[in-house]
Sequence to fold (220 residues):
Amino acid sequence: MIISAAKERTRRAALLQDYRSVFLVGCGACATACKVGGEEEIFATQEWLEELGHDVTGSAILDEACHIMRAAREVRRFRDQIAEADVLLVLACGAGAQSISECSDKPVLTGVDPLFLGNVRRFGQYEEKCSLCGDCILNETGGICPVTTCAKGLLNGPCGGMDDGCCEVDPERECAWVRIAKRLEDLQQGVFSRVVEPKDWSRKFKPGQHSIERTPGSRK
Ligand code: SF4
Ligand code: SF4
Fold:
């Protein structure tokens, strides 16, 4: 999921200072799981905005704010309350905020900072697991991503700085390649032996190359 953090209240207040009335949009998927854009946060934000003297004309929590067609449907459903607002404040990732922006002629502000694609270990503890490199190597590394979890993104085993199994860059963390070797051993797959070619970064989607149309699951 997309791990996001709430913008500080001072930053939100500054963003909204030129607007009197606000319609709030949350997201029932990642933003709810990260506790930045679910029911509780929308309610708390509404209370805070009203204390600051803003009018909150209404709020909606979309199932997945990043789904443009569904976002458009919800924007239509709440059109009267949105029409009364000077601005929409979206508590969802940047993709969600852009769905809303695409569906509304009102100014759209985002109240969160998206951080990375990650996993939830437990509430409040998130771990970056994948950098979306476009050429997944997990099948050969025991399901542990070296691109993301090795501080140097190395593909062929540990660097010379690894010390007693710990990472040179962050000695509090176990070296990613030690974890990979242990996992491969546990799986009786043997330690990765071939030399991995330098990553073909042309397979990674980059800003500007961000629209695709394909059958789900296929590469072409
Ligand atoms: S190898 Fe690439 S696609 Fe696979 S988990 Fe790592 S960053 Fe993500
Ligand atoms: S010590 Fe291990 S995890 Fe840290 S940078 Fe070197 S190879 Fe990567």
